[in-house]
Amino acid sequence: MTDTFQNFNEDLSLTSQIDCENSARSILAKLRPDWKSSEITFEYFSVGITNKIFSAGFGGEHVIFRVFGHNTNKVIDRENEVTAWRQLAEHGFAAPLYGKFNNGLICGFLEGKSLKIEEMRDSRFHVNIAKRIAQLHTSVPTDGKTLVFEKMYQFLKQLDKNFEKPEQQEFFTKNFPTDLEAEVKKLEQMIVKLKEPVAFCHNDLLVHNIVFNGEKKTIEFIDYEYAFPNYALYDIANHFCEYAGVEGTPDYSKCLTKDEKWLFVNDYLRFGGQKHCDVRIAAMFKNLPLFEAAAHLFWAIWALVQTQNSTIDFDYLTYAHARYQQYEKRLQKYVDGLHH
C-alpha cells in the first residue's frame, strides 16, 4: 500500500450524501484499490462549522474525507494547510495526508474521540492538553515570524462593509466599529513589543479539535486548517477562550478560573522543558488577557467574513458579536492590569 500524496479530479457534494459517497468510492478505487466498493462503510462526524467530515472504512482500515465548505478558501489558505499538515505529520503531530480532491483532503484516521465540552472542562484532561501543546511548540521548527496579523488583514480584505440583508447591516453598524483595521493595528503594536516567543501553533484548539485516545490515555490534535507560526501564548490564550463552547452562544462564565489557568501554564512550561520560574509565569499571566483579546478579534473578523460567504446553517453574525464583546473585555482587563 503506497502512501504517496495523490491528486484526484473529483468534487464531493456537500448536499447529496449519495453523490458524495459515489465520488468517494471513485477516489478510493485508485487510493485503496484492494477495498471492495460495495463493502465500504461511511460514518459522518461533521462537527466543524466550516466543513463536512466523514470516514470511509473497509476491513480494519479507515481514511478520513474532509470536504471544504463553500467559500471557505476566503478564510483558509488551502496551500498553507497542506504544507503545514505534511510538516506536522512528519513530526508525529497529525495523521498522514494521503491526497487531495478538488474541494477537500483525504487523511489517515486517528483513534479516539473528540472531547465533549464537559470533558474538556474536567481538570484531569488539562495536564495532557498542556503537555501536547508544549510538545507541539517545542518540536516543529519555524522561522520565528508570526502570521497572525497578516491573516487578520487578509480577512478584512475579504469583508464587504455592505451586507446583503438590511437587518445584518443594521446589526453590524450598531455593534462593530467602522474601522476594524485600526483595532488590528492597535493590537499588533501592543503585542509586538512584548516579544513573546514564537512557535508552530495549532491556533484553533477548540473542543472538537482535541481527540482523546481512551486506551493509550493520550491527547492528539486534529484539523490544522489555521496552523501557522504564531506567538505560543496566543495558542494557549485561544484554547482558554474555547472553554465557553461553540454550540449556540458561547458561555464565557464557563472558562477556566485564574487558578486553573495558572496550573495549566505551569504544566505547559514544565512539559516544554522550561524550569519553574515564577517570574516567567507572572509575565505570561500579565500578557495573557491581551492574547485572549487577539484570539477573540481574530475569530470575530473571521465570523464576519463567514456571515457573507458561508452556506452552512450557523449564526455567524451573532457569534462574531459575542467574540468582539469578549475582545473588548479582555483588552480592557489587560490595560487595567498595566496600571496596577
Description:
This protein has helices at about 15-30, 80-90, 115-120, 125-140, 150-160, 165-175, 180-190, 230-240, 260-270, 280-310, 315-340; strands at about 5-10, 40-45, 50-60, 60-70, 95-100, 105-110, 115, 200, 210-215, 220, 230. By secondary structure, the protein is α+β, with helices and mostly antiparallel strands. The protein folds into two domains: about 5-110, Phosphorylase Kinase, domain 1 (2-Layer Sandwich); about 115-340, Alpha-Beta Complex (Aminoglycoside 3'-phosphotransferase, Chain: A, domain 2). The chain has a six-stranded mixed sheet with strand order 1-5-6-4-3-2, sandwiched between helices. The chain has a three-stranded antiparallel sheet with strand order 7-9-10. It has a two-stranded antiparallel ribbon with strand order 8-11. Strand 3 (about 50-60) and strand 4 (about 60-70) form a beta hairpin. The longest helix is centred in the C-terminal third of the chain and has 32 residues, at about 280-310. The model has no long low-confidence stretch (mean pLDDT about 90). Its EC number is 2.7.1.82.
Task: Describe the secondary-structure layout.
Layout: E1 6-8, H1 17-31, E2 41-44, E3 51-58, E4 61-68, H2 78-90, E5 97-101, E6 104-108, E7 113-114, H3 117-120, H4 123-139, H5 148-158, H6 166-175, H7 180-192, E8 198-201, E9 210-213, E10 218-221, E11 228-231, H8 232-241, H9 258-271, H10 278-309, H11 316-338
Parallel strand pairs: 1-5
Antiparallel strand pairs: 2-3, 3-4, 4-6, 5-6, 7-9, 8-11, 9-10
Helix pairs in contact: 4-9, 5-7, 5-10, 7-10, 8-10, 10-11
